[in-house]
Amino acid sequence: MNIMEVDGYKARISYDDEADKFRGEILGINGSADFYGNSPSALRREFAKTLKTFLALCEEQGVDPGKEYSGKFNLRIDPELHSVIAAMAAGQGKSINEWVSDALRAAVES
């Protein structure tokens, strides 16, 4: 994955062909903040500087820097997959929601 982490914050990293630089976009924040660098180490330094500036601005304005998530999202899947998941969940004595939540947690922790 093209993810970089600084102080618990994550950023998606991509290459900007037009600028001929790596670009980072901080994820999970109220607002948007991006940064550029010519190398991974330069990108990490810029990430830290941009994050520090963003957090200071949030504090100055009394804004929570972190984006809030409700814990709910809609997912559209193939009906056959839905049927298999329902059967597997029932076989484990779980609701579909519990089963999918467990599967997603295992995927991100691996």
Concise structural overview:
The protein is of the alpha+beta class. It is 45% helix and 20% strand. Helix 2 packs across helix 3.
Q: How does the SSE layout of this entry go?
A:
Elements: E1 3-6, E2 9-16, E3 21-26, E4 34-37, H1 40-61, H2 79-91, H3 96-109
Antiparallel strand pairs: 1-2, 2-3, 3-4
Note poorly predicted spans.
Answer: none
Strand order, sheet with most strands:
1-2-3-4
**Helix count?**
3
Give the rounded overall mean pLDDT.
95
Order of helices and strands: EEEEHHH
Total strands: 4
Descriptive overview:
The chain has 110 residues and is α+β, with helices and mostly antiparallel strands. The chain folds into two domains: 59 residues, no CATH class; 31 residues. It is built from three helices and four strands. It has a four-stranded antiparallel β-sheet with strand order 1-2-3-4, covered by helices on one side. A hairpin with a 7-residue loop joins β3 and β4. α2 crosses α3. The longest helix is centred in the middle third of the chain and has 22 residues. The two termini are 13 Å apart. The mean pLDDT is 95.
